[in-house]
Design a protein that fits this description.
Helix content: 10-25%
Pfam families: NUDIX
Order of helices and strands: EEEEHEHEEEHE
Largest sheet: 9 strands, mixed
GO molecular function: hydrolase activity
Number of helices: 3
Low-confidence stretches: none
Distance between the termini: 20 Å
Cofactor: Mg(2+)
Protein name: ADP-ribose pyrophosphatase YjhB (NUDIX family)
Keywords: Hydrolase
Amino acid sequence: MSIRNSAKAIIVQDNKLLAIKKEDKDGYYYILPGGGQVHGENLHETLKRECIEEINAEVEIGDLLFLREYIGKNHEHFEFDSKVHQTEYMFLCSLSEKSNDIGNGIVPDEGQIGVEWLPLKELLNFRLYPQTMRKYIIEHMEGKIFPVYLGDIN
């Protein structure tokens, strides 16, 4: 099995986080925009492509905020994720001035039903994956500093 690299965008505007909305048997849940790196792309190219495809937005990429691993066999979805090992690079991003029509892009994520702005003050009430990131995002926006590498978290 190989390890998959993924680039994710943390886009906060007006105290709201931009997230992709999906649905499963337990209801709505959210993920950060972004996705898998393909051979020959650097992480910035991956993230720019994925944001256009998923949220119809061009992004300006800032600092790498967090690096997390997801080793599926160690988490609650091990029944269907046991063979997944993914390293996610999460960058602080902002929307380009050209991005006026935020919504499902030209190649939405599998199961994507929309795009939503989630209020930071209510972020802990949403099923945003990785769930551990909710706290890190809120506290980062409040000025708290964390190590970049967060380990195998979900």
